[in-house]
Design brief:
There is one protein chain. The chain is α/β, with parallel strands linked by helices. The protein folds into 4 domains: 34-151, Rossmann fold, CATH 3.40.50; 156-272 and 306-333, Rossmann fold, CATH 3.40.50; 340-462, no CATH class; 472-615, 2-Layer Sandwich (Heat Shock Protein 90), CATH 3.30.565.10. It is built from 17 helices and 20 strands. It has helices spanning 2-25, 47-62, 84-98, 117-122, 138-144, 156-166, 181-193, 210-218, 241-252, 276-293, 313-318, 339-342, 344-432, 438-462, 474-486, 510-527, 583-593; strands spanning 34-40, 67-73, 106-109, 128-133, 147-152, 172-177, 201-206, 224-228, 256-258, 270-272, 302-304, 309-312, 330-333, 472-473, 493-499, 505-506, 532-541, 546-553, 597-603, 607-615. The strands form 4 sheets. The chain has a 7-stranded mixed β-sheet, sandwiched between helices. It has a 6-stranded parallel β-sheet with strand order 2-1-3-4-5-11, sandwiched between helices. Strands 15-17-18-20-19 form a 5-stranded mixed β-sheet, covered by helices on one side. Helix 7 links the parallel strand 6 and strand 7 (201-206). The longest helix has 89 residues, at 344-432. It is rod-shaped. Its EC number is 2.7.13.3. GO terms for molecular function: ATP binding; phosphorelay sensor kinase activity.
């Protein structure tokens, strides 16, 4: 029993090995290298041939089928039928020798002229696949054997219906053809279906002679449209397929239609599309099936539907045919490009440039806003620091003022006693002399000045907190101050005083007025070094309700960097002459206390003018 099992296993293993060997020698047809011979009509570079070849190679490449591709050009349509047999006998010997050691798996031909016995003479045992064959050649394919094809399914009835739709009032239809097989085939088809158009009269012109064609075209009625079925001229005439189309239109100036799309754009209104892409892709699929089966007998021909019809925009315009009545599958060529289509590249470039600069501008705006934010933050920081510095400066100023106040209180206390004694002595002296004497007047002025000094000391002592001012007539107070000041001005200084105010009153006391005049005039005299002109002018500005006091000198002026500091306490340029830096500070404080204003007009080496604006008291 065990021995039998071992024998069975050995036999089974041997069978598997033999099966593997057999499979290795006979791989799947789609995985082995195949050889295809392509036979071109007209030229290997003909547009139709190029598209067909590309579609086949593309399909085989997508299936990863290794392919050896060979090509021959027969161009049977150009050959005289009487010499074809002799030529094919020579070609048969040539191809037999040329492909002796090459196993051709399939012949693909774009020339349906060799359907039947002609093709079999060249390659008796090889499967044929015709990439385009007329519908009337199906019987020839069957008789040929081992052959298949993509069948042209175009129907002339389609182009007739289009012509009637676009020209409903036309009564005649002319069919132009030559003696080529395909042209005769389509002309015969139209003859078979003309009975379905009883309201139209069909006229047929068949010729290979240009002059004859032109003569017959000139005889056509204007109420006619033409269907040109000619495909290729006779070898004995010198007019080409495309040239024929031009002759038909140029001779008649009538609407011309074609069963092909390639003449469209050369005097043809519309033509049916024979699409090489559809035929090529269909042929590629059929080729794989034929190679798989090793024969074309069980691969039936396939009809390739043609749906598109090409129209020439220039012809549509010439015959006033609107595009909206064209069939849905219509393709209009030679249509003028729209502005966007015409300048697409330029517009695209402009768009890219605009987008680029928009991005740059956006980035710049963002950066600018960021800079503004940073600047704002920096400004705030600077403002904070400035305010801190200002606060420190005010604190320093407050400390100075506090020290000054304390110092002033001490001095005021001492001076009060001294001035009181002087005042008592002055009054006693007045009692001892005659009121008519000059000395009596001087003692009286001394007593007035002492009283002003006592009032001033009293204000300093009380710090002005409880001192209430009463409106004072300014004219009299100014005159008295000028009278006292006049004796202090050197004779070498020209002094001019002008007081043009009436009864205007201000909230100042005589002592403050004297301080203002005293400090400004003494400073002016010092600025002129005792030589020059000092002018004091007092006038009333009724519009602003202010008294304006102007003190002008012809001195050296104030240096530019000192102007902003002249009202600071203890700031002086005359320390060597005993200056304390308090005169202008006191003047500024007095004017500021009554909401007045003081300005300085300064010219180096030309003098200085102080102007005081004192509000008039109600």
């Amino acid at each position: 029993m065990i021995r039998t099992d071992w024998v069975s296993l050995i036999v089974l293993g041997s069978c598997l090995c033999l099966s593997s060997t057999a499979l290795a020698k006979n791989p799947h047809p789609l995985k082995r290298k195949v050889s295809i011979l392509y036979i071109s009509n007209f030229s290997s570079q003909y547009y139709w041939n190029n598209i067909i070849k590309k579609q086949i190679m593309k399909h085989f490449d997508s299936l990863e089928i290794p392919l050896d591709f060979y090509e021959e050009v027969l161009d049977v349509r150009r050959k005289d039928p009487r010499s074809r047999d002799a030529i094919f006998s020579i070609l048969k010997k040539l191809y037999k020798e040329k492909y002796r050691n090459i196993k051709i798996d399939l012949i693909i031909s774009s020339d349906d002229s060799i359907v039947g016995s002609l093709g079999r003479k060249l390659f008796p045992d090889v499967p044929f696949l015709f990439c385009y064959a007329r519908n009337d050649l199906k019987k020839n394919l069957i008789d040929m054997g081992n052959a298949s094809a993509t069948i042209d399914h175009r129907n002339p009835e389609t182009i007739i219906d289009i012509g009637i739709k676009l020209h409903p009032n036309i009564k005649h239809i002319c069919i132009v053809s030559d003696y080529s097989e395909v042209s005769i085939f389509f002309s015969n088809q139209i003859q078979n279906i003309e009975k379905f158009y009883p309201q139209r009269k069909f006229v047929y012109i068949r010729t290979d002679n240009i002059n004859e064609l032109v003569d017959k075209l000139r005889q056509l009625d204007n109420n006619t449209f033409i269907i040109d079925t000619s495909y290729y001229s006779s070898p004995f005439e010198e007019f080409s397929h495309r040239k024929t189309k031009s002759i038909v239109f140029e001779t008649t100036q009538l609407p011309v239609y074609s069963l092909w799309s390639n003449p469209v754009g050369n005097g043809v209104v519309a033509g049916m599309d024979l699409d090489p892409f559809k035929h090529g892709s269909t042929a590629a699929r059929l080729a794989v099936q034929i190679i798989q089966q090793g024969s074309a007998d069980n691969v039936p021909p396939v009809f390739v539907p043609e749906e598109r019809v090409y129209f020439d925009y220039e012809m549509l315009t010439l015959f006033s045919i609107p595009e909206d009545i064209l069939p849905p599958t219509a393709v209009v060529i030679n249509k003028p490009l729209s502005f966007f289509e015409k300048y697409r590249a330029t517009l695209a470039l402009i768009f890219v440039v605009v987008v680029f600069f928009s991005i740059i501008i956006t980035m710049l705006i963002v950066a600018l806003r960021q800079k503004k934010r940073e600047k704002k933050v920096l400004t705030m920081e600077i403002d904070v620091k400035n305010k801190e510095a200002e606060a420190r400066e005010k604190l320093q100023q407050a400390k100075k003022m506090e020290a000054l106040g304390t110092f002033s209180l001490g001095i005021a206390h001492d001076l009060n006693g001294v001035l009181g004694s002087i005042s008592t002595c002055s009054r006693l002296a007045q009692q001892e002399i005659s009121s008519e004497s000059r000395a009596y007047e001087d003692l009286h002025q001394i007593d007035i000045s002492i009283q002003r000094a006592i009032d001033l000391i009293r204000k300093i002592s009380k710090k002005g907190n409880i001192y209430t001012k009463a409106p004072l007539p300014l004219k009299k107070a100014m005159d008295e101050s000028m009278h006292v000041l006049n004796s202090q001005i050197p004779k070498t200084v020209e002094f001019n005083y002008e007081n043009n105010i009436g009864d205007a009153k201000v909230l100042l006391d005589p002592g403050e007025i004297h301080q203002i005049v005293q400090n400004l005039c003494v400073n002016a005299v010092q600025a002129m070094d005792g030589h020059g002109r000092l002018s004091v002018c007092v006038h009333e500005d009724c519009k602003l309700k202010e008294i304006v006091i102007s003190v002008t000198d012809t001195g050296k002026g104030i240096p530019g960097d000192h102007v902003e500091r002249i009202f600071d306490p203890y700031f002086t340029t005359k320390k060597d002459k005993g200056g304390k830096g308090l005169g202008l500070f006191i003047v500024h404080n007095i004017i500021d206390s009554i909401s007045g204003k003081i300005t300085v007009k300064n010219s180096m080496n030309a003098g200085t003018c102080f102007q005081l604006y004192i509000p008039i008291a109600e």
